[in-house]
Design brief:
Helices cover 17% and strands 34% of the residues. By secondary structure, it is an alpha+beta fold. It folds into two domains: 124 residues, Luciferase, Domain 3 (Luciferase, domain 3); 94 residues, ANL, C-terminal domain (GMP Synthetase, Chain A, domain 3), CATH 3.30.300. Strands 1, 2, 3, 4, 5, 6, 7, 8 and 9 form a nine-stranded mixed β-sheet that branches. The relative contact order is 0.11.
Length: 222
């Protein structure tokens, strides 16, 4: 089974239920659409999108197209080069110039690369929250909250805050058999497992979250 992304909890539950290991890959429409994939024959790394497929190069860059230092803890935007990358956006030269430079396409996805060359998505660059001067990546918080038995679905967003600039808010859909969970319960759950500047201070419960036709959460509507 192949999937574009999946939390550690999804991997664990799927393996326990079906006895099958999920192999993850990554790509975009602009990369036709695959750019990386788990390496067959190697033990998959949970949460990794694998390595570039044959004929494709990947690297991490900053906002000025400079290469990010080769450090497993360094976070940068994924850039992709290869036969799979589009020529450009139809009749949109400005958008093409912003997205492609010297054959490299910038994806908008932030990631890390470990010592073995495996890439790990951190988040979308546009979803990053800046709280009190700290960069906070919603995906990390979402994975922690999804590990709570009462959480069926969650989206973490930044909301305006007078002194911090942005505050961290979790919008949660409860599991039907855990309706008694409270906002304070989930705040405490996050506080136990995340750094002080990362855990959500605000929790909102909803019956459902707005989704695209392909099953992605529409955070801009929250």
């Amino acid at each position: 089974l192949c999937t574009s992304t999946g939390s550690a909890e999804v991997h664990k539950n799927f393996k326990e239920r079906f006895g099958v290991t999920i192999l993850e890959g990554y790509g975009l429409s602009e990369t036709s659409p695959v750019a990386s994939f788990s390496v067959f024959g190697e033990e998959p790394k949970v949460g990794s999108i694998g390595k570039p497929i044959p004929g494709v190069e990947m690297k991490l860059i900053d906002s000025e197209w400079n290469d990010v230092p080769d450090d497993p803890e360094a976070i940068g935007e994924i850039a992709i080069k290869g036969h799979n990358v589009m020529k450009g956006y139809y009749d949109r030269p400005e958008a093409t110039a912003e997205a492609i430079s010297d054959g490299w396409f910038r994806s908008g996805d932030l990631a890390k690369k470990d010592a073995d060359g495996y890439y790990f998505i951190v988040d979308r660059s546009k979803d990053m929250i800046i709280r009190g001067g700290y960069n906070v990546y919603p995906r990390e918080i979402e994975e922690v909250l999804m590990s709570h038995p009462a959480v069926s679905l969650v989206a973490v967003i930044g909301v305006p805050h007078e002194s911090h600039g942005e505050e961290i808010k979790a919008v949660v859909v409860k599991n039907k058999d855990h309706d008694d969970v409270s906002e304070a319960d989930l705040v405490a759950w996050g506080k136990e497992q995340l750094a002080a500047y990362k855990y959500p201070r605000v929790v909102e419960f909803r019956d459902e979250l707005p989704m695209t036709s392909t099953g992605k959460i529409l955070k801009r509507e929250l």
